[in-house]
Write a structure and sequence with these properties.
Elements lengths: L1 H22 L3 E6 L2 E6 H50 L7
Antiparallel strand pairs: 1-2
Length: 97
Protein backbone atom coordinates (compact mmCIF):
# COMPACT_ATOMS: atom_id res chain seq x y z
CA UNK A 1 0.00 0.00 0.00
CA UNK A 2 2.84 2.38 0.87
CA UNK A 3 4.59 1.65 -2.44
CA UNK A 4 1.43 2.29 -4.41
CA UNK A 5 0.85 5.62 -2.65
CA UNK A 6 4.49 6.63 -3.22
CA UNK A 7 4.22 5.67 -6.90
CA UNK A 8 1.03 7.71 -7.29
CA UNK A 9 2.55 10.78 -5.65
CA UNK A 10 5.73 10.54 -7.76
CA UNK A 11 3.64 10.05 -10.91
CA UNK A 12 1.53 13.10 -10.05
CA UNK A 13 4.63 15.23 -9.51
CA UNK A 14 6.11 14.07 -12.83
CA UNK A 15 2.88 14.81 -14.72
CA UNK A 16 2.62 18.27 -13.15
CA UNK A 17 6.31 18.89 -13.93
CA UNK A 18 5.94 17.87 -17.57
CA UNK A 19 2.85 20.06 -17.88
CA UNK A 20 4.71 22.97 -16.28
CA UNK A 21 7.62 22.52 -18.69
CA UNK A 22 5.28 22.32 -21.68
CA UNK A 23 3.44 25.50 -20.71
CA UNK A 24 6.66 27.46 -20.06
CA UNK A 25 8.78 26.15 -22.95
CA UNK A 26 9.67 29.51 -24.53
CA UNK A 27 13.28 30.62 -24.35
CA UNK A 28 14.23 33.62 -22.21
CA UNK A 29 17.46 35.59 -22.07
CA UNK A 30 19.31 34.98 -18.77
CA UNK A 31 21.93 37.65 -18.06
CA UNK A 32 24.59 37.03 -15.44
CA UNK A 33 27.91 38.70 -14.62
CA UNK A 34 30.04 36.71 -17.05
CA UNK A 35 27.66 36.67 -19.98
CA UNK A 36 24.20 35.63 -20.99
CA UNK A 37 22.46 32.51 -22.26
CA UNK A 38 19.04 31.55 -23.52
CA UNK A 39 17.28 28.92 -21.42
CA UNK A 40 13.71 27.64 -21.20
CA UNK A 41 11.65 29.60 -18.71
CA UNK A 42 10.59 26.42 -16.91
CA UNK A 43 14.22 25.43 -16.32
CA UNK A 44 15.05 28.89 -15.00
CA UNK A 45 12.11 28.80 -12.57
CA UNK A 46 12.98 25.29 -11.34
CA UNK A 47 16.63 26.28 -10.82
CA UNK A 48 15.63 29.40 -8.89
CA UNK A 49 13.36 27.34 -6.62
CA UNK A 50 16.06 24.70 -6.10
CA UNK A 51 18.70 27.31 -5.22
CA UNK A 52 16.31 29.03 -2.81
CA UNK A 53 15.40 25.75 -1.14
CA UNK A 54 19.08 24.80 -0.83
CA UNK A 55 19.94 28.13 0.78
CA UNK A 56 17.01 27.76 3.16
CA UNK A 57 18.16 24.28 4.17
CA UNK A 58 21.71 25.54 4.79
CA UNK A 59 20.48 28.38 6.99
CA UNK A 60 18.18 26.12 9.00
CA UNK A 61 20.97 23.54 9.33
CA UNK A 62 23.27 26.15 10.86
CA UNK A 63 20.55 27.19 13.31
CA UNK A 64 19.82 23.55 14.16
CA UNK A 65 23.48 22.79 14.85
CA UNK A 66 23.81 25.78 17.17
CA UNK A 67 20.70 24.67 19.04
CA UNK A 68 22.11 21.15 19.44
CA UNK A 69 25.35 22.54 20.89
CA UNK A 70 23.37 24.69 23.31
CA UNK A 71 21.27 21.68 24.31
CA UNK A 72 24.38 19.56 24.96
CA UNK A 73 25.89 22.37 27.06
CA UNK A 74 22.72 22.71 29.12
CA UNK A 75 22.46 18.94 29.65
CA UNK A 76 26.03 18.89 31.00
CA UNK A 77 25.15 21.78 33.28
CA UNK A 78 22.11 19.88 34.58
CA UNK A 79 24.24 16.81 35.33
CA UNK A 80 26.76 18.92 37.25
CA UNK A 81 24.03 20.73 39.16
CA UNK A 82 22.27 17.48 40.11
CA UNK A 83 25.59 16.02 41.25
CA UNK A 84 26.24 19.10 43.39
CA UNK A 85 22.76 18.91 44.92
CA UNK A 86 23.28 15.23 45.73
CA UNK A 87 26.62 16.01 47.40
CA UNK A 88 25.07 18.81 49.44
CA UNK A 89 22.26 16.53 50.63
CA UNK A 90 24.78 13.94 51.81
CA UNK A 91 26.75 16.40 53.96
CA UNK A 92 25.76 15.94 57.59
CA UNK A 93 24.19 18.97 59.21
CA UNK A 94 26.01 20.17 62.33
CA UNK A 95 24.06 22.10 64.85
CA UNK A 96 26.11 24.93 66.45
CA UNK A 97 23.85 25.29 69.53
Amino acid sequence: MKRILSFLIISLVVVIGVGFAAINAELVQFNYYLGNIQVPLSLLIVLAIAIGASLGILVSLGFSLSQRRELARLRKKIVLTEREIKNLREIPIRNKH
